[in-house]
Structures are given as C-alpha cells and as structure tokens.
Amino acid sequence: MDIVIPNSGWIEAICGPMFSGKSEELIRRLRRAIIARKLVQVFKPAIDTRYSESEIVTHADVRMRSEAVSWAPEILGRLDWRTEVIGIDESNFFGSELVETANQLANCGKQVIVAGLDTDFLGRPFPPMPDLLATAESITKTLAICMRCGNPAKHTQRLVQSEELIVIGSVESYEARCRLCFEPGVPRQEKLNFGSAGLDETSESV
Ligand code: ZN
Description:
Blueprint: E1 10-16, H1 22-35, E2 40-45, E3 55-57, E4 63-65, E5 67-69, H2 74-78, E6 85-88, H3 97-107, E7 111-117, H4 129-135, E8 138-141, E9 144-145, E10 152-153, E11 155-158, E12 174-177
Parallel strand pairs: 1-7, 1-8, 2-5, 2-6, 6-7
Antiparallel strand pairs: 3-4, 9-10, 11-12
Bound molecules: zinc ion.
C-alpha cells in the first residue's frame, strides 16, 4: 500500500527598507523556481503602479510578470490551483487579511514568498509584516546602505511632506538611512545659502 505524504507548504518572508533589494531577492527566488519547472504566480497590490501595472519591477529595472490585486483574498480567486510557488511583492500595502491568505495558501501546500517593508516612515513596525514574520517559516532581512553616511541602513526616510502612511514613490521621495541618520517623519530642511542667485527661498530643496 502506498503511503501518500501530502506536500507541506511554507511561508518565506523577505523584509527590509526601500533600496535594500527585497524585490530583487523575491525575483531571484521565483526565477530559480521557474528554472526548476515549478508553476509560479506573482501578485502585487493594485495601489503600487510606480513602474508597471502588470510586472513587479526593481529599482534597477529587473522585471517579472505579475497580477495586480486590490486586496489579499483576491489572490485566492486569481490562483490557478496547479501553481506551486506564489510570490507577493509590496506586502506591506496589503491589509491584515494577507496574514490569513498567506497561511491558507501555505496550509494548502503552496510555497509562499512575501516581500515588503518591515517599518514605516516613522520607524514603526508596518502591518501586516510583523504578523507575517511571526507566522513565516523563514525570514530574510535585507539591509540597504545609508545614503547619508554609508552605514548599514534599516530605515526608509521620507523626503516629502505628508502624514499619510502610504505615499507611493521612489528615489525622489525616499532614502535609505541608518539608525543615526534617520529622522522620523519628514527631515529638517537644511538651510542652503544661495547668496544672491535670486532663488526663491521658500522653494523646497527635496
Ligand atoms: Zn547614516
């Protein structure tokens, strides 16, 4: 009599600040699965259309086809159940429902790889990442390099004025910063002396 061992799924989490290579790491793992002829599906939140609506794109312009969904449970509806590996980018833009969705998929035998920011612009844990990290089998924390001093950077520094939790942007609105250089919220604008260049002093320098 054959013994049937069901496939166990699992969750791998990739977290860190912006510019730390989270999406690149996600794409690297997904490409490796594709090379092994596993069926792969990639999802991202519809909110993040910085570069493309149908692809996940790294800051270095590495691309992979993806499907944009408006909330986490939609992933279950869009899933081809033959899919073995599920990649989810920008996980911090999904609500708390992502924790349940990711665990449901893992419980069904799927390999689920989630990538996202672990802290917000004030340095606070960014839901739902803390709960994803707690329920994941493995965690990779990626570090960036502080754009001010070159130390290892775990913070995402917002450079534009906004109290909103989510402001979609890239190098024009964010920097990676280390613990020492991080200024929670909006950084102080450094006073620049333009002398008599006739520049408007009220204009923002970001
Ligand atoms: Zn620094």
